[in-house]
Amino acid sequence: MKLLLKGGQVYDQGTFVPMDIEVTDGVVTARSASISATEYDRVLDVSGLHVFPGFVDVHVHLREPGFSYKETIATGTRACARGGYTTVCAMPNLNPAPDSDEHLREQEKLIQQNAVIRVLPYGTITLGQKGEGELTNMAALAPRVCGFSDDGRGVKERETMREAMLNCKAVDSIIAAHCEDMSLIPAGGAIHDGSFAREHGIPGIPSQSEWGPIARDVELIRETGCRYHVCHVSAKESVEIIRQAKAAGLDITCETGPHYLLMCQDDLQDEGRFKMNPPLRDKADQEALIAGLLDGTIDMIATDHAPHSAEEKGKGLAKSAMGVVGIETAFPLLYTHLVKPGIITLAQLVEALTTAPRQRFRLDGGLNVGDRAEITVFDLNAPSTVNPEDFLSKGHATPFEGWQVDARCRYTICGDKIAYEN
User: Fold this and answer.
1) N or C: which end of the chain has fewer CB within 10 A?
2) Which pLDDT band holds residue 408 (cuts at 50, 70, 90)?
3) Which domains does the chain have, with CATH numbers?
4) Are 172 and 143 in contact (CB under 8 A)?
């Protein structure tokens, strides 16, 4: 297919330039102030719209194989495309977990058959994704996965993580660590160990359950030299530990989620759509995360898109499943509530959604000549209200229901196909 995007404001090194973009058989083949709109299979008039590199999310739950009642590769990737995402890294809490060649092939087959954007699976760190016990054969899986994670479970023992890091280093891959010490969390721990938990009699999750394992792993990075990435950072102490580790020259990066940047425990309501792991923490934690994004301690934003059934999310904070959806609303929310008020710049947001994850996870794609075409087009003057009933994802549990947004995706182009258009 030969495609022309005509008349858009194209993101280029932090600024926007009026430019046409030509895509031929899935590769960007020309960029110019004006390209004649002849001999194309499709010409997209993107006048008045903003054209970005396709967004990348290194932390998404697509639920297949094993939990298709929550989400499927088909519904999940359509939701990703609607959010402007062209590449996502799929977490391994599946059935079967991708801990062997046989199990990974089941996931790969579903991706090949049903994905409308690029999906890169993680392999597990431990067999069965148990967070303990025998390690996965990383050498066998490394060429086919974006990294290794036991997301949903922290690696329990120091020596297990040390051995995993050495194995990961040997195959030149990356560990994406879910940092959670379950021994510090009381039975029924559901939300942050703060004022809301005390006032409502709900067992609280202390920040140390997150920052403790990060501190442990920082020492192991120093010893092993492993490439290491921290998932869903939520606590101010975590930000400071990572800041100091970076200052010491350690090979560490991290992500946080839109909900942690835009909300805190003060926003909680006793509804399942506000329950995620890690939980929304104090206002001071939220402010520390924003500061970390601004100074480069936090490298990227990842949604941790985690769909569940309505039944699983309909039991209040105490009993609902952990996890909220966010892939369709991430950019509109962050643009409207962080960029427009001047808290961060649009360039900082775009870098956190595109350049940083691509560099860290060694991914190609973009909108420069020679790139595999990964392009998203947004209208930045399109007010609407977040309405879960409109989602393409099977999951509807979002803490942002009813929030106003001013941006809407118009096109998402992934390789040789238009994955989404509105």
Assistant:
1) C
2) very high
3) 2-50+371-421 (2.30.40.10), 55-360 (3.20.20.140)
4) no
- Spell 390-415 as b/e; 16+ CB within 10 A means b: ebbbbbbbbbbeebebbbbbbbbbbb
> How many angstroms separate the CA atoms of 220 and 198, rounded?
35
Enter the tokens of residue 28: 């960007």
For 66, half-sphere exposure in the C-beta direction (CA atoms, 13 angstrom radius) is: 15
Which tokens is 67 given? 């939990």
Total residue length of the chain: 422
Report d(CA 304, CA 149) in Å as an integer: 13
Dump pLDDT digits (tens) for 232-244: 999 999 999 999 9
Catalytic residue numbers?
304
Kind plus residue range of the DSSP H or E element containing 140? helix 138-141
Residues 6+ apart with CB under 8 A from 187: 203
- Mean pLDDT over residues 290-317, rounded? 98
Distance CA(286)–CA(88), nearest Å, equals 25
